[in-house]
Please model this.
Amino acid sequence: MTNEALQNLISSWIPELEFTEEKSQFLNITVQPEQLHQLMTQLKSNSETKFDYLFCLSGVDWGTALGVVYHLESTTHRHQLVVKVKTEDRENPTFDTVCDIWYTAEFHEREVFDFFGIKFTNHPNLKRLFLTEEWDGFPLRKDYVDEINMVIK
Amino acid sequence: MDTTITNNFKSEEYFINMGPQHPATHGVLRLLLTIDGEIIKKVEPDLGYIHRSIEKMCERDSYQQIVHLTDRMDYLSSHINNEAVCLTVENALQVEVPERVKVIRTILDELTRIASHTLWWGVMGMDVGALTTYFYGFRDREMINDIFEETCGARLTMNYNIPGGLMFDIHPNFVKRTKEFIAHFKTKLPEYDLLLTGNVIFQKRMKGIGILSKEDAISFGASGPVGRASGYSCDVRKHHPYSAFDKVTFNEILKTEGDTLARYQVRILEMWESMSIIEQLIDNIPEGDFFAKTNTVIKLPEGEYYERVETARGELGVYIISTGTKSPYRMKFRSPGFSNLSLLNHIAVGGKIGDLVATMATLDLVIPDIDR
Amino acid sequence: MNITKNIHEWLFSLMPEATASIVEMVLIAVVYLAIFAVAGLYLVLLERRVAAWFQLRLGPNRVGYQGLLQTMADALKLVSKELTVTIKADKFLYNLAPYFVIVTALMALSLFPFSKEFQAFDINIGIFFLTAISSIGVIGILLAGWSSNNKFALIGAMRSGVQTISYELSVGLSLLTMVLMTGSLQLSQIVEVQKGGWLIVQGHIPAIIAFCIYMIAGTAETNRAPFDLVEAESELGAGFHTEYSGMKFAYFFLAEFINMFIIAAIATTIFFGAYLSPFGITESIPLLGVFWFLAKTLVLVFLMMWFRWTFPRLRIDQLLVLEWKYLLPLNLLNLVLMALIVLLKLTIHF
Model:
């Protein structure tokens, strides 16, 4: 399906989504945290979109907001999509997990938790993945300071 | 006892640590196994032993420096990793690389793939007990390393790609030596089949072990030979072609059983396909420049860019968010090993320890790729 | 020139009978210990050169002429190593375990007829004694795994115990098949019978089947590849001898090679005529029998090494299935077949 058709179809499910195609090679959807899980479930189960392959899950620190970017692809229709979700809450950022929809998200969300501190509700095993349990802070955030280990140019 | 084992620990189960220093885990991976006799009840990987915070380092390096960081991620397909970043930067800057560069990059890609698969084959045999295969695999890999050394200057971490093209032109002996290697390897690959593939002990160790269904493969994000052995067509060279892959004809090897033997056979057949690609290209390398001019200080225009390549392990994705400065705002590497490792618990539970070793060998994990 | 008889008489003329017999026994023990040590060392070197030949490389060839002093250097190094003991290991059993394997290997070695005159211990239950002795060796492995207080060692020891007990059956039955033709368990008698042609030729079909089963089961008895998941390096570190270092590790290591030699020597004695030359060509030259015995044994040892460096290893359940579902019924059928052939006098005689 073309990006226009996708946009028309998906906006018919949830009206408050923002669509954009500028500064990116894919169709970007920005969704509110409360509707994330519902949108993802529909994107996978709907037979016209059928996004069954989550090929990249990245956490991003947008400066003031923390967010997650999901890159989706359909193995049957071969169209791709980007879903973004953001929250301004830097103390306790929380999103719904999608690992019941795509199993690969389990490890990816642990990585995002490890580096950004973003919590995912209903995750089966939300612990740090790469860093040790006692590590203080979230390294990939822009305001992370580590006098000893970081080399700032 | 480690706090990772929770209350579901029955009294007849016991807990064993495999790694981080272990001959079978191919790098520093720690597996926490919960075992009942010989049957595995739970596998939990513990990562981070070789985490070098490459993504954070990329946020302060220039794009040429980032290329040097990437070939230490999956060091067995280092050329392809470099190419991934270079492609992303070139597509963002809308720079058109010369045809010569594309063809040479493709040939080096396929040589890297063969080198990685021969090493995988040697180590695979060693893991199931046939200790001689290690030497045969490395013997053939040495020839490829020699070709790389002559052209690129290094045997393992090539750094031959730069955004815009190649660092130097290929050595005059490159074409001749590659052809000699192909001729030699064509006689050796049947030898591999004779030694390992047809052996009845090997088949019994591999058939029906670690079965992964197609839906699970897609859901877990398995790519590369792991996905293709389950019938999931995921070859990036076919679906999103880059460099010169749209000009060559090759088959995508698909098998349906999804067990370790299928994953093994997919890789062996992929080596034949790689040789066929090299043969199609090696005689017709177009003349021309070996790089396209870019600025010394590369600044990507504001926006988000994503490129995917097919490494020897699977699909590597490079995601750059740029705000117009000389370093990326956020750089994310979607590594194939990370997704392939996440399905280990799913396919190893219920099998035996020997099966775990065989399964891990066919997943072909390189831990620096996972830990970044 | 009968050396043993001369020494025997000389000793008995020197001192009273009791002391003389004790001195004689000590002398024999020392000689065999020396043979054990030298054989062990050179078998290790042979294995390394054979492995290197299969793997397209050279192997140790610098220390001494063609590397002949290599294992001597390794043994010296092992002797000088620090003997570490883990704190929680059961000290008495931990120290005792290597001696079980060494002593049983030595006792088995003393039975073989290297030549007509060169046999230390010719009891009338020869074969039976040999199989009994090799069963005791497994106690050493179990003790080693248990007393190390190490989970990997324990898993390795348990696997080994199961494996050895299962394959002893096949070894015993295949040897029994051949005893049907000789009518005696005594080793020197068995060699006498083979003066009319080696037993593997006399018994044609069932003897060949028995030989094949014996080689498979014998390789499994010694925990060598393709049945070496006891010490599967790529799975469990080092199996039951993980916690051993220095000289005690050397004991296990040497004992494995001597066991391999013993299995090959039993096969040579029963199937291939021990010290008898083919077609009786050099029977008149004394002591050349030792050369024939060693040559035949080394060919079988080479075969076992060939197995190790070519085949992948079997999983534990596949190993047990092989024994209980395939080898054991085959063995029993073969026994019946051999009994029929002996009864109907269909053996080949020269």
Notes: The radius of gyration of chain C is 21 Å. The mean pLDDT of chain C is 82. The CA atoms of residues 268 and 274 of chain C lie 5 Å apart. Chain C touches chain B through 28 residues (CB under 8 Å).
